[in-house]
Amino acid sequence: MHETDLRIFISKKLNYFRLKKNVSAREMSLAIGQSDNYINSIENKRVTPSIQMLYIICEYLDVPVNEFLNETKTKDYYLKEINKKLVSLESEQLENILAMLKSF
């Protein structure tokens, strides 16, 4: 992967997982001990984090490094995401989803 492609890839992944955690770039930067614009610099493709910093970022985001770096989403990823959504649904909603799944 070319350095420019790597910056784009890391930028998109970081932005995705940061928004998923619902934290601002500034808040995250400060929480991991960096200057207030560090995460913004990565997301704007000006900086590429070191391997050590990538581990710190992933730890903060509660995302395994291999999941962060994975270019494709695995079956386990989709199952985890679906399960997160299902646990907050009401019984009637779950019943409807089950009926739909049985049709496949």
TrEMBL record:
One of its GO terms (molecular function) is DNA binding. SMART domains: HTH_XRE (SM00530). PROSITE patterns: HTH_CROC1. The keyword DNA-binding applies. Residues 14-68 form the HTH cro/C1-type domain. Keywords: DNA-binding. The keyword 4Fe-4S does not apply. PANTHER family: HTH-TYPE TRANSCRIPTIONAL REGULATOR, TRANSCRIPTIONAL REGULATOR. This is HTH cro/C1-type domain-containing protein.
